[in-house]
Structures are given as C-alpha cells and as structure tokens.
Design a protein that fits this description.
The protein is of the alpha+beta class and 380 residues long. The protein folds into three domains: 109 residues, Butyryl-Coa Dehydrogenase, subunit A, domain 1, CATH 1.10.540.10; 109 residues, Beta Barrel (Butyryl-CoA Dehydrogenase, subunit A, domain 2), CATH 2.40.110.10; 148 residues, Butyryl-CoA Dehydrogenase, subunit A, domain 3, CATH 1.20.140.10. The chain is 54% helix and 15% strand. A four-stranded mixed beta sheet has the order 1-4-5-8. It has a four-stranded antiparallel beta sheet with strand order 2-3-7-6, with no helix packed on it. A two-stranded antiparallel ribbon has the order 9-10. Strand 9 and strand 10 form a beta hairpin. Helix 1 packs across helix 3 and helix 8 packs parallel to helix 10. It is globular, with a radius of gyration of 21 Å. It starts with a helix and ends with a helix. It binds flavin-adenine dinucleotide. Flavin-adenine dinucleotide binds next to strand 1, strand 3 and helix 13.
Length: 380
C-alpha cells in the first residue's frame, strides 16, 4: 500500500527520532534490563503513548496504519521502545473507547491523552495462558455493588511501573464468555501488590511481573462493559490490536535485513565481499521476499480494518500477527548467520533482535493458537 503524505511524514520523523534517541541506548537498556524512563517522557511529549485517543477527549486520534508505522519505526531501534509506543491501547484506550461508559471515557481517555500514564493488561495466570478460561482470580460482587478481588497474575508487561491495570477476573462459574469480567484497577488501590520480576531471554527494558490482588476492593464503576462479558470484549480488543504486534515484528526484521545487506557489501572473505557469494545472495533474496509479503499483508489488513470492515477481523488479525512474527523470527535468525561470529556478539545488535523476535511468536496468543483460529474459521 502507499502511505498518505501525513503517514509518510510520520514515518520519516520517527525514523530520525529512532536513530537519534533510541538506537544509541538500546543495547544498554537491554543489558541492564532497565525501564527506559527517558523514552516514556519523550514518547508522552511526542504523542506516541496516546495515539488512538479520539480528538474529542484531547488525544491526537490516529488510525491503525499510523499506529503500525509508529510501532514499526521504533522497533527498528528497540523492541522495548516499540512495546511502549501506543502501549496503553489495550490496557486503557481501546477497552474504554469500545466498552466504557461516558464517565469512564471522560476519565480514562483524558488521562491517556496526557501522555503520562502507563497501563498494563492482566490476563495470564500460572495455570492459564493460552487457556484463558482456566483463570482463578475472582471478583465477588458485594451488596453495595463493589467487588472484592483475590488472585494473582503473572508475566504482566509493565506490571511494576503501571498506573492502571486492566484486570480480567472470574465473576461467576461456567463458560468463559459469560463469567469473566474486566476491571480497571488503579495500582494505588490497597490490596494491589507487585511480585517477582521475570528474568527473560529478550524484550528487556519492558518489565514483566507477577501481580497480586489480596482482598482488594474495587468500586462498581471499575467494571468495564457488562459483568461477565469481559472475555468476549477482550477478544475483540486483542483482535483490533494484533496487527500492531506484527508491525513491531516488521520493524525488527526490516532493520536486521538492511544491516545484513550492508554487511554483505562490506565484509570480505576469500578476497571478495561476502555479498558476491551466491549462498549469501540467496539468503538476502529470501529475506527480501518474506519482508515484502509481510509488509503488503500487514498494511493491507490495517487498511481494511481502518475502513471499518470487521467482517474478517478475527481471521485477518490472527494472520497479521502470526505470519509477520514468523517472518521476523526467520529474518533475524538469518541475519545472525550472515554476520557470522559478529552476529553472535553483543557488540552488534543482531543477537538482541533475534532474542527479541522470539517473544512475538508467543505473546498475544501463541502462533499455534492463531493457526488454530484461522483454520477453525476456514472450515466453519
Ligand atoms: C514477554 C512476555 C510478555 C507477556 N505479557 C503479558 C501481559 O502483559 N499480560 C498477560 O496477561 N500475559 C502476558 N504474557 C503471557 C502470554 O500471553 C502467555 O505466555 C501466552 O499466552 C502463552 O501462554 P503460556 O505461556 O501459559 O503457554 P501455554 O498456554 O502453556 O502453551 C504452551 C505451548 O502449548 C501450545 N498450545 C497451547 N494450547 C494449544 C492448542 N489448543 N493447540 C495447539 N497448541 C497449543 C502453545 O502454543 C505453546 O507452544 C506475556 C508473556 C511473555 C513471555
């Protein structure tokens, strides 16, 4: 697809920003696994935390194509940075936009528009990852309409720095689509506690934590959407957000590919540049074809969703996430190979990109689950 003039300008300015502000410290953020406060401040000032908040609530608005451009460009520097960009979309902005009351929109969309809050999404539990319905965290409604929540979540991105958490909890027994509810939790609420931080392979700088909810009392207006309908709502939100995971993957892969082409031209072996060897050219050709297919697919799907056509939403959302993240894993792995020993060295960014690409095949529904969704819809 062709970007509009505005989208092209956004891409170009973000590419400059990534080169100047993200790439120089990306390796250090990864090495120290530290939350990059300077990026949070910068992205808030640039409007990158609040993309998608409608103008009527003080936000910049934004379409899926633009959000994906932001995700892609920043991922060229760091996956942690790209994760932070538009991070609040699934934790605050999309659920409130689609399922919130007018009062919730006024409060949370305006807060998001300030660019100063970070939201997390808490669904996963130790025994309930792909099988979300297996969650044990419970919210019990009291006579006055408030809820008492008990349970724990793990792997929650931004857990230790989040101001708000979109929490999924059981409010009844029986099928998930009738018994899981969504709540917006202010992390200053008594009974909320941050637990262990995960030590992980990649995407360092974007912390993951256990979260505990111990006799935590939530007011009735913390509920988002109808009681018991949180599961269905969350699936819709995740579908709307899924192409953005593909966009981060595309940015990682594009950067790894461009670095590989440059390296093939400059690195010498047996008296010539390694780019002269057919074995290397075949690798580059395969990477280029996969990237081209992934790019056309991703932005084509974004265009369809932006046009308001949700008739194939579930299938194409799964395709955009699954295919592009698989391509990113393949391309970054080949890039490490092209760089030889240097690809394996922390002096170069390739090994970080390969480690980072891996997580994108696991989060927001594993790629096995997405193949299952696509396949199921094909034979329905
Ligand atoms: C870095 C990181 C960040 C994360 N951030 C968050 C977050 O912010 N919020 C949150 O709630 N969660 C988060 N998660 C959790 C993530 O969503 C889960 O790890 C993911 O859904 C997979 O669940 P699981 O780890 O329990 O794997 P499991 O569900 O146990 O799956 C194990 C394996 O079995 C396969 N499998 C499972 N069921 C099927 C099936 N029916 N058919 C075929 N294969 C199947 C899976 O594909 C996988 O390969 C994060 C995870 C990571 C690693």
């Amino acid at each position: 697809m062709r970007f509009t003039e505005e989208q092209t300008a956004l891409r170009d300015s973000l590419r400059r920003m990534t080169n100047e502000q993200i790439k120089p410290i990306a390796g250090e953020v990864d090495d120290n696994d530290r939350f990059p406060v300077e990026w949070k401040k910068l992205f808030g000032e640039m409007g990158l935390l609040q993309m998608w908040v409608p103008e009527e609530y003080g936000g910049p608005g934004g379409d899926l194509v633009s959000v994906c451009i932001a995700k892609e460009e920043t991922a060229r520097g760091s996956l942690a940075a790209s994760t932070l960009v538009c991070n609040n979309s699934i934790g605050l902005i999309l659920p409130v936009m689609h399922f919130g009351t007018e009062a919730q929109k006024e409060k949370y969309l305006r807060l998001s528009a300030s660019g100063q809050v970070v939201a997390a999404v808490a669904m996963t539990e130790p025994q309930a990852g792909s099988d979300v319905a297996g969650m044990k965290t419970r919210a019990v409604r009291q006579a006055d309409g408030s809820y008492v929540v008990n349970g724990m979540k793990n792997w929650i991105t931004w857990g230790e720095v989040a101001d708000y958490v979109l929490l999924f909890a059981k409010t009844g027994d029986g099928p998930a689509h009738e018994n899981i509810s969504a709540f917006l939790v202010d992390t200053k609420t008594p009974g909320f506690r941050v637990g262990r931080k995960e030590r992980k392979m990649g995407r360092n700088g974007a912390p993951n934590n256990e979260l505990y909810f111990e006799n935590m009392v939530l007011p009735s207006d913390a509920l988002v959407g109808e009681e018991g309908k949180g599961f269905t709502a969350c699936m819709r939100i995740l579908d709307l957000n899924r192409p953005t995971i593909g966009a981060s993957a595309l940015g990682l892969a594009q950067e790894a590919f461009e670095l590989s082409v440059a390296y093939c031209k400059e690195r010498k072996a047996f008296g010539k540049s390694i780019g002269q060897f057919q074995g290397m050219q075949f690798k580059l050709a395969d990477m280029a074809m996969k990237l081209e297919a992934a790019r056309q697919m991703l932005y084509g799907i974004c265009e369809e969703i932006d046009a308001g056509d949700y008739s194939r939403l579930q299938t194409i959302a799964s395709m955009s996430k699954c295919y592009v993240t698989d391509v990113a894993m393949e391309v970054t792995t080949e890039a490490v190979q092209i760089f030889g020993g240097n690809g394996y060295s922390k002096e170069y960014p390739l090994e970080r990109m390969m480690r980072d690409a891996k997580v994108l095949q696991i989060i927001e529904g594993t790629n096995e689950i997405h193949r299952m969704v696509i396949g199921r819809n094909l034979v329905r």
